[in-house]
Design a protein that fits this description.
The complex is a heterodimer of chains A (about 180) and B (about 675). Chain A has about 180 residues and is an alpha/beta fold. Helices cover about 40% and strands about 20% of the residues of chain A. Chain A has a single domain (about 30-180), classed as Glutaredoxin (3-Layer(aba) Sandwich). Chain B is about 65% helix and about 10% strand. Classes of the chains: A alpha/beta (about 180), B alpha+beta (about 675).
Chain lengths: ~180, ~675
């Protein structure tokens, strides 16, 4: 009996499909949410400082150092969960953390920081959610890694725990530190 | 304690699945009749233990046992009871337990209702289903165990079910979808059993047909419900997004549609034998592929489950084993099979072949569009790209339009040749008349939009042929009314299925071309008019639900000064997860939906409001349900019942049956 080779076609199509799926699978970090903002400059903003009455902050305050921008709020339980780790990162790793106090009451936010400690360099008051919309925030907490040029290099959705720091944020930051410029 | 019982029961069912895979197959190899007959009772046991496992998880949800990780992540004590139950399949682990239970249910059903199969075929089929169950249960136990506890420290309160899923549509959509997906495992098992036995005859097509039809009907309902849910719950009035996960359910449906037609030709005329086997393998393979896409994180999607590389790897390996070995078996066992029937170009066989080719090409187009972003990323090394609705509109729609043209003439065709039914000149007249009639009507009642006129004319042409076919069947009968009601159920199934497609077609094209929408900023008292309706923003107020608080708008809709309805769209804040949800409100109608969703608050007492008027949008889902009903009716056809009854009589003559205690349906 001669082999009818056309019957092998489905198998070959499937093998190609598996190669593609396997490759795509090895390529992707499943925790990474796609963001239009990765490798884009941090959006323009001009917002009040939480602590210093009357002072406004803009993009110049973000540029210059590798920093974390953390979107948080007092109504967000996971922000409390990640707070000890953020405190540790600011203290032990020497990474400045900029807070975006999102859709919150400034009075409550200040009280919350007094109670739990304030590892942040400063906080932006985003009670209208304007910056959060520009950042495409899904919900609090979210944390962005910004490089020395003020370009967003990474985004993490959800609480920054010890393992998130070790597995995702720390490698990103060490790459940025090693790269020239 | 109960959770451990569920876990233990799942382990037992793994053991039974292994036995089910091995014992009947061993019986086939060793020609041992007793071993071959063990399949029935083992399937019953497998089903019972999977059910116990599932009930145990449900119990953990209902009793708020937050020491179980999965419950803590997906439930909350304030969650209403019906959502506590549906939260069981609200995330990856539990939904896969449901998926596995559904496989157990189908396996048990095959054991119950396939007693007219030859003993060895039944043993083979059950053994293959048992093998699939082994794969599913191993996956559950090793990568996705829903019974894991966090002891001794566990949360006192749960994270709550994703608010998007707290909805009636999501109570029923996944079970229906899984019944369809997993249901294709049955024709798959029949196809593999046939290749395995080497008897690639038409008998397997007769056995597979009712199973394929019912699985396909469930899948149709599942997809229809999913589309309806997306429409009212996602808050932007869309009903189909060509999202990777939607495509994952649509591809098996398209191939399944090809399969039910091709099975008919194989059963009745003995044609396309190997092709039908390939379609049966493809339908289930695409279901598995869908599972991989949803659960591995290879593609990002609004539906994506919590993703875990380990799970993705397991499913990929499972896919390779199941699909790879099936296609290898196919390549070597389907050799030398020839169809001996002869048919002409205008016969029903030829038209079904065209139907099959077009459906497979359409599936290929959807598959390409779904995987293209992945391929692009692989080739360019990291660049991301998204293939949106424009791709699918330009590629998929023309293929389907050609399919509809063939669908119009197909009911008039006959097996072997069509000299009696299909008259080309008459068909051209029908088509021209449909086109003229629809054009005139649309000029009188609406505006002339070419695509709508063309699609509606084709829909009309399909309907004319269906009606004429019914007329032909009763022409020579003396009691015409009785003749209408005494056709076979399979025939009514065909009429309903094709009629449902007509209704969906009209719904889709009218919704796409005649919908209107406006985004406006409104303060109380503002008025916006759209599509002949006036929407007045009356006021906002706060309302409190069981596990959320909401801003609720009140919008009065009038037409020509007369009140039509009042709509109450909401913006909800769910307390436990702190997530904000848009809950649109709508006034449904046969000929139009009015749809209002709240956007963001924009300044003092002003809100962004989106209003839609969507004509004929309900027709899309009414059509879908009719299609499913058609599939189900065809299963109830008395040809299949007769074979069961005959089998029952045979059974009662045998005084001793090996699998006693299992009642026949």
């Amino acid at each position: 009996m001669t082999l009818n080779k056309s019957l092998l076609i489905p198998l070959f199509v499937f093998i190609m499909l598996v190669v593609l799926l396997g490759y795509g699978f090895s390529l992707k970090d499943p925790n990474l949410l796609p963001s239009q903002l990765i490798d884009q400059p941090f959006p323009e903003f001009n917002l009040a400082d939480l602590h210093e009455d009357g002072r406004t902050r803009n993009n110049r305050d973000v540029n210059g150092k590798i920093a974390l921008v953390n979107v948080w709020a007092t109504w967000c339980p996971n922000c409390l969960v990640e707070h000890p780790e953020l405190t540790r990162i600011a203290r032990d790793e020497g990474i400045p953390i900029i807070g975006v106090n999102y859709n919150d009451d400034s009075e409550k936010a200040r009280a919350w920081l007094v109670r739990h400690g304030d590892p942040y360099v400063f906080h932006l008051v985003d009670n209208q959610g304007r910056l959060a919309i520009d950042l495409g925030v899904y919900g609090a907490p979210e944390t962005f890694v910004v490089d020395t040029e003020g370009v967003i290099r990474f985004r993490h959705v959800g609480a920054v725990t010890k393992s998130v720091w070790q597995r995702t944020l720390a490698p990103v930051i060490s790459v940025l530190r090693d790269s020239p410029g | 304690m109960i959770a451990e019982l569920g876990h233990f029961s799942l382990i037992l069912s793994l053991g039974l699945a292994f036995v089910l895979m091995l014992l009947p197959a061993w019986g086939v190899f060793s020609r041992n009749l007793v071993l071959m007959q063990t399949g029935g009772s083992i399937s019953a046991g497998l089903f019972v233990f999977l059910l116990i496992s599932f009930v145990a998880l449900t119990y953990a949800f209902v009793t708020d046992d937050f020491s179980v990780n999965y419950v803590a992540r997906n439930s909350n004590s304030a969650l209403p009871l019906q959502y506590k139950v549906s939260a069981v399949w609200g995330a990856h682990e539990g939904s896969f337990l449901l998926w596995t239970l559904v496989l157990g249910t189908w396996t048990f059903a095959v054991a119950l209702f396939s007693r007219d199969l030859t003993l060895d075929m039944r043993a083979r089929v059950l053994s293959i289903l048992g093998g699939l169950a082994v794969g599913f249960i191993l996956f559950l136990l090793f990568t996705s165990n829903p019974f894991e506890r966090s002891l001794p420290v566990f949360p006192s309160e749960g994270n709550d079910l994703n608010p998007l899923l707290q909805d009636f549509g999501l109570i029923v959509h996944p079970p229906m979808l899984y019944m369809g997906y997993v249901g294709f495992a049955v024709p798959f098992a029949f196809a593999i059993a046939t290749l395995w036995s080497g008897r690639l005859d038409t008998a397997w097509a007769r056995w597979s047909r009712p199973w394929t039809n019912i699985a396909w009907a469930f899948l149709t309902i599942g997809i229809t419900l999913g589309s309806w849910w997306a429409y009212y719950e996602l808050g932007w009035g869309g009903w189909w997004f060509w999202d990777a996960v939607e495509n994952a359910s649509f591809m098996p449906w398209l191939v399944g549609t090809a399969l039910i037609h091709s099975l008919a030709s194989t059963e009745k005329r003995g044609v396309f034998k190997t092709w039908t086997v390939l379609l049966a393998i493809a339908a289930f393979s695409l279901s598995l592929l869908g599972g991989f896409l949803v659960r591995s994180g290879v593609l990002t999607s609004v539906h994506a489950f919590a993703q875990d590389p380990q799970r993705g790897m397991y499913i990929l390996i499972f896919l390779v084993i199941v699909i790879g070995s099936s296609l290898t078996l196919y390549a070597f066992r389907a050799q030398g099979i020839k169809s001996n029937a002869i048919f002409t170009w205008n016969s029903r066989e030829a038209l079904i072949l065209v139907n099959n080719l077009l459906l497979v090409v359409a599936t290929g187009a959807v598959l390409l569009g779904t995987l293209y972003p992945l391929a692009y990323e692989a080739v360019t090394g990291g660049d991301k790209l998204s293939v949106g609705p424009p791709y699918f509109a330009t590629v998929f729609v023309p293929i389907v339009m050609v399919l509809f043209l063939f669908m119009a003439i197909s009911p008039r065709s006959r097996w072997k040749n069509t000299a009696s039914g299909l008259d080309p000149r008459r068909q051209i007249v029908y088509m021209a008349c449909s086109l003229v009639a629809v054009s005139v009507l649309s000029l009188i009642f609406a505006s002339f939009v070419l695509p709508v006129v063309v699609i509606t004319a084709v829909a009309c042409w399909i309907t004319v042929n269906l009606v004429e076919d019914v007329a032909r069947r009763i022409r020579n009968k003396s009691e015409k009314l009785r003749a209408i009601f005494s056709q076979s159920l399979a025939y009514y199934g065909m009429l309903l299925g094709h009629g449902g497609i007509v209704i969906s077609m009209i719904g889709i094209c009218c919704t796409v071309y005649f919908s209107s929408e406006k985004d406006v900023r409104m303060v109380p008292g503002d008025l916006v008019s759209l599509g002949g309706y006036e929407f007045q923003f009356v006021r906002m107020r706060n309302v409190t639900g069981p596990n959320y608080v909401a801003d609720q708008g009140e919008i009065l809709v009038t037409r020509g000064g007369e009140a039509v309805t009042t709509l109450y769209p909401e913006k909800r804040l769910y307390a436990a997860s702190q997530s904000v949800m848009t809950e649109a409100d709508m006034d449904p109608g046969i000929f139009r939906d009015l749809y209002v969703a709240l956007g963001e608050p924009v300044g003092e007492s002003a809100w962004a409001v989106r209003v839609h008027v969507k004509p004929f949008v309900r027709w899309i889902w009414i059509g879908g349900l009719l299609i499913a009903l058609g599939g189900a009716l065809a299963v109830a056809d008395k040809r299949y019942r007769r074979s069961r009854r005959r089998e029952k009589e045979n059974k009662s003559e045998q005084s001793m049956s090996v699998e006693d205690g299992i009642p026949l349906g």
